[in-house]
Structures are given as C-alpha cells and as structure tokens.
Amino acid sequence: MQFFDKYLRYQLISLSYRGRIAADEHQALYNFAMQRDAKGAQEVLYRHLWSGTDQALATGTIAA
After folding, report:
1. What is the pLDDT confidence band of residue 14, given thresholds at 50, 70 and 90?
2. CB–CB of 2/28 below 8 Å?
3. List of residues 6+ apart from 56 with CB closer than 8 A
C-alpha cells in the first residue's frame, strides 16, 4: 500500500505531461530490466527522474 500511495502522490504532483520522451524512457527501462542490465537501467532512471523534476520545476507544478 505504501508504494501505491507514493505512486499516487507522484501522479498528483506531476501534472505536466512529458509525452514521447517519458514514454521512450519507460520503454528503455523495461528493455534494460528484461536484459538484466542494471547499469543501463540506472542511467535511464537517473535521467528520467531528473528531467521529470526539471520539467515540474520549470512549469511551476512544484515550487523550487
């Protein structure tokens, strides 16, 4: 339940849509997970989280 609560909170905070970029990052994460490539997944996840945060800050979804 705690995981779902954090997911829901994330969804409520991240109201700005990142479109194809985020979808491509999700696909890459899936592919790396299926290949058991932790290093590749880590790099994509790092980029994904920071770019999502940057967009939320830039659009005012969350305050700096």
Report:
1. low
2. no
3. 13, 14, 16, 62
